Amino acid sequence: MAKKVKEQKSIEQTIWSAADKLRGAVEPSEYKHVVLSLIFLKYANDKFDEHRKKMIDAGQSAFLEMMPFYVKDNVFFIPECARWSFIMENAKQADIAIKIDTALHEIESKNASLSGALPDNYYSRLHLDSGCLSSLLDLINGIDLQKETDKDVFGRVYEYCLKEFALKEGKGKGEFYTPKSVVALLCELIQPYSGIVYDGACGSGGMFVQSMRFVDEHKGNKRNISVYGQEYTDTTRRLCKMNLAIRGISANLGELAANTFLNDRHKDLKADFALENPPFNQKDWREPTALIDDPRWSGYKVPPVSNANYGWLLNTLSKLGQNGVGAVLLANGALSADGDEYEIRKQMIKNDMVEAIIVLPNKMFYTTDISVTCWILNKNKKSRIEQRENGDVSYRDRSGEILFMDLRQMGHPYEKKYIEFTQEDRDIVTNCFKAWREQSNSNEYADKAGFCHSASASEVIEKDYSLVPSRYIEFDDETEEVDYDSKMSELKNELKDLLVREEKSKKELLEVLKELGYEI
Question: Is the distance from CB of 87 to CB of 99 less than 8 angstroms?
Fold first, then answer.
């Protein structure tokens, strides 16, 4: 019988497995900052050492301690107290946590692009066991990341650990991370080849990283992409800045962490692309009297206090330029929400801002069990030619049309309880979208039962501006069809009946109590 060959672990799996064992009692939400900032520290030092060697070989030894000679080549200057050799020399000391905090502080203070990126006195406050911290340093030190042929090895390790921490934190947390296969699909749909990319809820920066990866894979020039984002949580913003710095991505994230609605850091921005996974069904996102006259919803109803979903949609539209395209992930309830949200959706459709509605499978996200939809917004659905480095693209005139896609039967099992898209899955979706959107003799679009349907404006009006895909897509097997509008209507009616019965019961109880002589 042939001996079973043990599968070789990747470098990122090796680091994660060992680092996770050293976590002890520390919460994943806290521990991620320890691991990720040490990965960043090692990355910055390796790049620094590599640049020093080049300077020595070039006969520039006299300038080794001069910061401008590093900054000009986009290399972070590392002060002596922050150098990896110094950290390792002191790894077994009781005050190693203080030394790491000092190292991170000094690197940040010497490199303006890292302002607000690295943890501040984090290790000292966390009171991580010095033995565990020393072992973690040995782990990261013991693996020569520079031997890897992939230049983005640090980025791979950082991204892998981000994903694993999101999995550990799970539902209700982990909102800093959007699953990689979802982000990849969004990029392949809107194709950010060049221009400004915006994310108003940027988390740890996955949308930006994947945008750059998309450009690389399609032989584009990353210098033609500018990144603008905003993040509400300071610790998450730091993760984002480190994530981007490891990949050499320059980004404008505003001067500080801030609420996108209440303190918009990019008020005048006009982006070419937007990629966003904002908090779902965010309640009490503004005071009842706040943001009433905000220019972002000019021409629309003011989004209700009870739910920020349409606030995010209108914020995205306001940030897109005249040919801008955006992909926004929202809970499915937004597709048929009533009240002021209905009025906003109706106006968005009348203004021809909605290009596609794509329902994703359940269990794709680590933070929620609810179904999720991707809204593709487009400020210009008319026929035009877009010039690109790798050939021009001719767009069809899709004015007054919306493409509906249902991907709930797609995807493959991942980590036992989740679903992810393979490259093959994503190709099926993007090929369909491109066939619908772009002029091509070799790839013609056609409606497909259970998968996609191109709806005219009259169809959408006939269905009272509902954007639920199952109301447009035909199904071969009717048992597969889910009419979210009908189900929502049934639930609302049941709730109303329950409330009426409860109110009636209260009145009957009060009458009985009064009859018994109680003062109510």
Answer: yes
Collapsing DSSP to helix, strand or coil, 21 comes out as helix
- The C-alpha angle with vertex 394 and arms to 392 and 399, in degrees rounded to 5, equals 150
Give the pLDDT confidence score for residue 211 in this predicted structure: 94
Tokens of 490: 């049934």
Q: Tokens 């968005």 identify what position?
A: 348
Which residue's structure tokens are 């999995």?
A: 167
Contacts of 259 (CB under 8 A, 6+ apart): 232
Instruction: Check if the beta carbon of residue 180 is closer than 8 Å to that of residue 210.
Output: yes
Q: Please give the C-alpha separations between residue 187 and each of 166, 276, 362, 374, 411, in angstroms, as whole numbers.
A: 21, 11, 20, 12, 17
| Joined tokens for residue 227 | 């990144």
Cα gap 28→11, rounded to integer Å = 21
The Cα–Cα gap between 279 and 261 comes to: 13
The DSSP line for 40-56 is: HHHHHHHHHHHHHHHHH
* Tokens describing residue 2: 């042939």
Q: Which phi and psi angles does 360 have, rounded to 5°?
A: -95, 160
CA-based nearest residue to 209, from 197, 194, 224, 195 = 197
- Distance, CA of 199 to chain centre: 8
φ, ψ for residue 3, nearest 5 deg: -75, 135
pLDDT in tens, 98-137: 999 999 999 999 998 898 889 877 777 777 778 888 998 9
Q: What's residue 142's pLDDT? A: 73
- Distance (Å) of CA 88 to CA 19, 41, 105, 121: 17, 12, 17, 19
Q: Which of 262, 270, 264 is nearest to 230 (CA)?
A: 264
Reference 393, options 455, 357, 453, 435; nearest CA is 435
Give kind and range of the element (H or E) at residue 101: helix 96-110
DSSP state of 467: -
Tokens matching residue 67: 């910061």
State the helix-helix crossing angle for 234-246 and 153-169, rounded to 10 degrees. Answer: 150
Max Cα separation, the chain? 101
Collapsing DSSP to helix, strand or coil, 29 comes out as helix
Q: What letter represents residue 266's amino acid?
A: H
Backbone angles phi, psi at 54, to 5 degrees: -65, -40
Q: Which helix (H) or strand (E) holds 169?
A: helix 153-169
Q: Which two tokens stand for residue 234?
A: 């300071």
Listed residue (267, 272, 273) closest to 254, CA to CA: 267
Phi/psi of residue 187, nearest 5 degrees: -65, -40
Would you give the DSSP letter of residue 76?
-
pLDDT digits (tens, 9 = 90+) for 289-334: 999 999 999 999 999 999 999 999 999 999 999 999 999 999 999 9
Pairing outcome for strands 354-359 and 401-406: parallel
Q: Which of 299, 335, 273, 317 is nearest to 467 (CA)?
A: 335
Using DSSP bridges, classify how beta strands 372-378 and 384-386 pair: parallel, antiparallel or unpaired.
unpaired
